[in-house]
Amino acid sequence: MLQTISEHLTEYFGPDFIAINPMASTSFAYAGWFVVLSYAGVILYFVIRGARQTKSINDYALGSIAFSPVAVGLALAASMTSAATFIINPGFIAYYGLSGFISLGIVFAISAVVSLIILTKSFRKIGQSIKAMTMAQWIGLRYKSDSYAFFFGVISLLLITFIVLICVGLTKLLAASLNLSEVYVLLGVIVFVFGYMMFGGANSMVYTNMIQALLMIVVAIILLTSGFDHFAGGINGFLGKLEAIDPLLVSTTNSESPLFRDFFEIIFCQIIVGVAVVCQPHIITKSLLLKDDKQVNTYLLTGVIVELLFFLVVFAGLYARLKFPDLTYNGQPLGLDSVLSTYVVARFPVYIGLIVVMGLISAGLSTLEGLIQTLSTTITSDVLAKPIRHSKISPVAFNRLAIILLAVITFVFSYQQLVSPDLSVGIFAQNGVYAYFSTAFVPVLFGMFLKDIPAWIPFSSSITAMVVHFSVYYGRLSSYMQEPVRNPAIASTAAILTSLFVGLIGYVIYQRSKPTLTQKA
Predict the structure, then answer these.
(1) pLDDT at res. 517
(2) Which of 145, 191, 300, 312 has its CB 3.0 to 4.6 Å from that of 455, i.e. a possible disulfide?
(3) Element (H, E) at 389
């Protein structure tokens, strides 16, 4: 039956519908069709269920259902970890070795979860008191500035780069698993996911994220144990196999990589970036889904434990390098973004491989759903708030139009990254996402821990961060930025530290300019 469907699809779309160099076996591809379609059916069930309880833009953004803290914690872990961690980042580890794992799997992971724990309670407390649905609203209401809220609504569009990363990751995975052309897979992914996100919102997303997180836990364990046979000679035996391929693979730094050349990049920059990464709206606003403050500790405990497990998945990139020592498969060179997807179809038997594929799809969809939800809500509630108030079209209808617009933009950029990436779509995404949370870091930090502060202080910090980030990256400032492939973490670190300095200077000036008690008297 599946073969007949494939033949009809090929006849309808043309011979380019099928991949020119198929990766998966025929049995894997046909079984993959069945599993993927079944998975899509389950997702649609929860979307329809959630859509019935979504009556307003507030329901779409924050939900109208009382979710358990464990469910929201799993949703947090699933949305915080995406196709970047499960599909793209293992490719960096396969290419550049142990230095990449230390950077992405240990330093970045620990920094991110510590920051999450510290920032969540304060953000939630203020977020509840001012009834914010989005990060832009939170900042606008916290500093009593509509222009600042609008600015952040516009800046939030940088997160489209992250959406592109996930769509490219899912496309690579499904194209390799189903033996289909990447362009048609990309189109199908975008139409399906953006289509159902027009209706479900938070009410369906928490359920789907919870299921996705459970699948991801299973897959994380499968991937992390898939190379245990390489440890037959102990850790030294494992490292010896990697060293035989390339000594730089077992070095704590890799001078030939664009991201892990020294400890400044591997440790210092990743600590700064890891602390600030939590300021993404689909992460830090997740706590607002909880209805009771007593649930926060359970939510954080669940999210942090599962999240640390997910971050370790990048270690599978080393197994992939042992499987493909010369980074080729069937005589074809493996692009960085294709390493993990190819490893799955080459390493596992059909039944286990399909479980892994489902988990990897879950890793992508969990974050993709959150990003679509937060970005479309931001466009509706912050960027286009005034036109909507004077329009006869409802905010929910505007929200759906925003999702359609995001889908079109995503397809254009994703196609470009499929045909001509700058080493990896990960670099493209990091540049946009890092610029966003570099801009958000100071206003979030000051907004939670400083009580009396005018909007001009964090606003000036945000502008500084944006200018510094893109100046360092595109102006190739510093010796680190002279290579063809540049590290966005360098630009982000400079932006965060500079903006923090500007913010602190502004705060000191403001405090000194305030009249003293003696002057008041």
Answers:
(1) 43
(2) 145
(3) helix 385-389
The amino acid present at 20, given as its one-letter code, is I
Architecture, CATH, for domain 22-514: Up-down Bundle (1.20)
The DSSP secondary-structure symbol of 329 reads: E
- CA-to-CA distance for 300 and 96, rounded, in angstroms? 32
- Give the containing element (helix H, strand E) for 332: strand 332-333
Query: Given this model, what pLDDT does residue 249 score?
Result: 97
C-alpha torsion sign, points 215, 313, 71, 174: negative
Going 373 to 375 to 376 to 378, the CA torsion angle's sign is: positive
- Which has the closest alpha carbon to 490: 432, 414, 431, 439? 431
Tokens matching residue 55? 């009556």
Angstrom distance (rounded) from CA 49 to CA 40? 14
Structure tokens at 425: 């779509």
**Which residue in this structure is represented by tokens 């859509």?**
51
- Say how far apart CA 19 and CA 250 lie, in whole Å: 35
d(CA 85, CA 310): 8
Task: Tell me the residue type at 153.
Answer: G
Q: Where are the domains of the chain?
A: 22-514
pLDDT at 518: 45
pLDDT at 14: 54
Query: Which stretches of the chain score pLDDT less than 50?
Result: 1-2, 517-518, 521
Give the helix/strand (H/E) hosting 335.
none
Q: Note the pLDDT of residue 55.
A: 59
Cα 318 versus chain centre, distance: 22
What region, left, alpha or beta, does residue 487 occupy, with left being phi > 0 and alpha being psi -120 to 50 degrees? beta
